[in-house]
Amino acid sequence: MKNHLTTLTVLFTLALAMVCSDIALAQEMSKDAWQAEMTRLTARKTELATQMTKLDGDIAAMKTQNEKATADVRSCEDALYAMLGVTRAEVEAFDKELGTMESRVAELQRMSDAELLTHRDEIMAMDKRLAEMAASKIALIPRYGNRISGLQAKVAGLMKSLQREKTYTVGTWSRDRDCLWNIARKPDIYNNAWLWPKIWQSNRDKINDPDIIQPNWILKIPEGNELSREEQSAANRYYRSKAEAMEPASIP
């Protein structure tokens, strides 16, 4: 029994010694690896610092080149403006006005034909102004001449939409409550019931009595936001006839 204990003690001591040796070796290897990594990172830091210094120099050189190029461009522009007989302030104002018009045309292009009708005067004025700008000396500068041409094409498209004949298909009274009065007051028609005579007078081939329209009739919707003299005259005759029909018969 004593021998067995001795043997166990020796074995335990040897095992403990081996574990301690492994721990020391592991610690020594970790230290070496750490030192190697630190050496590598230090070298990389130095390398990056060198690259950064070079990049800073390149950026400074490019900035200097850009400033020179900008000055050269400005000098050329001044010479061109002098040749055309315009000032830089005039060109900048011209550029700003074009930019505003480009933004507005983009907004108008997103509108429906019905919405465009309410902006007819603005579109016509824009077309006239673009013609004036196209005749300007500043339009001889390609970047402005091209922008004006592009805008004129877009405004021409808007004007074509204004000229497109608009129609409305009559629904039923029970479902849609369609009559000339109600059709005229629809937001996408005139948004004004009193303009119903415009529809009547533009569709005399179908409408004999403005109080009677039939489902599925396709009515032309003329442009405008007020009655013409003829349309107003027709409306007056209609109102007079209605008033006379309501007068009581005279007693003999």
Name some characteristics of this structure.
9 helices; two-stranded antiparallel ribbon; mainly alpha; elongated; Membrane-bound Lytic Murein Transglycosylase D, Chain A; 252 residues; 2 strands
Per-chain topology:
Layout: H1 2-84, H2 88-109, H3 113-117, H4 120-134, H5 142-163, E1 166-169, H6 173-176, H7 180-184, H8 196-202, E2 218-221, H9 229-246
Antiparallel strand pairs: 1-2
Helix pairs in contact: 2-5, 4-5, 8-9
- Tally the helices: 9
Strand order in the sheet with the most strands: 1-2
Q: How many angstroms does the end-to-end distance come to?
A: 156 Å
| Biggest sheet statistics | 2 strands, antiparallel
Gross geometry = elongated
Structural class: mainly alpha
CATH secondary-structure class of one domain: Alpha Beta
Any low-confidence stretches, pLDDT <50, length ≥5? Answer: none
Total beta strand runs: 2
Query: What Rg, in angstroms, do the CA atoms define?
Result: 44 Å
Q: Return the CATH topology of one domain.
A: Membrane-bound Lytic Murein Transglycosylase D, Chain A
How much is the average pLDDT? Answer: 85
What is the H-and-E element order? Answer: HHHHHEHHHEH
Task: Specify the CATH architecture of one domain.
Answer: Roll
Tell me the fraction of residues in β-strands, as a range: under 5%
